[in-house]
């Protein structure tokens, strides 16, 4: 490969390592042998999909629990409102002052 680019083997290795470190290439260089083999890293798309699905399910479950708690509090008439001085004026309250 170095002959195709007109570079020496260390130059090619340096450029490939720079590309790997910058994230442009997803792989690693096997420099144990004299052949200097570039091996691509493979990702397990199935496990990534399962992880994303489990995360989305957990987020939805948490949101549903919060909504159910809010509904139960409203049904029990346990709605807490801010004190009058700290509340923002509602548009209907502003019109009454005219």
Query: Structural class from helices and strands?
Result: mainly alpha
Spatial order of strands in the largest sheet = 1-2
Q: What is the alpha-carbon Rg in Å?
A: 31 Å
Kindly report the oligomeric state of this protein. single chain
- Biggest β-sheet, characterized? 2 strands, antiparallel
Percentage of residues assigned to helices: 55-70%
Could you give the distance between the termini? 83 Å
Please tell me the overall pLDDT: 81
> Which percent band covers the strand fraction?
5-15%
Spell the H/E element sequence: HHEEHH
Low-confidence stretches: none
Number of spatially distinct domains: 2
Overall spatial form = elongated
- Separate helix tally: 4
Tally of extended strands? 2
General description of the model:
It comes from Athelia psychrophila. It is found in: Cytoplasm; Nucleus. This is PCI domain-containing protein. The protein has 98 residues and is mostly helical. It folds into 2 domains: 2-40, no CATH class; 43-78. 56% of the residues lie in helices and 8% in strands. The protein is built from 4 helices and 2 strands, in the order H-H-E-E-H-H. It has helices spanning 2-5, 9-22, 45-75, 91-96, and strands at 27-30, 37-40. It has a two-stranded antiparallel ribbon with strand order 1-2. A hairpin with a 6-residue loop joins strand 1 (27-30) and strand 2. The longest helix is centred in the middle third of the chain and has 31 residues, at 45-75. The chain is elongated. The protein starts with a helix and ends with a helix.
Summarize the structure.
This is PCI domain-containing protein. The chain is mainly α and 98 residues long.
């Amino acid at each position: 490969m170095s002959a195709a680019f007109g570079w020496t083997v260390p130059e090619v290795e340096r450029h490939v390592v720079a590309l790997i470190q910058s994230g442009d290439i997803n792989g690693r260089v096997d420099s144990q042998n004299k052949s200097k083999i570039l091996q691509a890293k493979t990702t397990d798309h199935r496990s990534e999909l399962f992880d994303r699905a489990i995360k989305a399910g957990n987020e939805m479950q948490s949101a549903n629990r919060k909504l159910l708690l809010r509904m139960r509090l409203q049904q029990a008439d346990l709605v807490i409102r801010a004190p009058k001085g700290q509340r923002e004026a509602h548009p209907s309250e502003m019109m009454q002052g005219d």
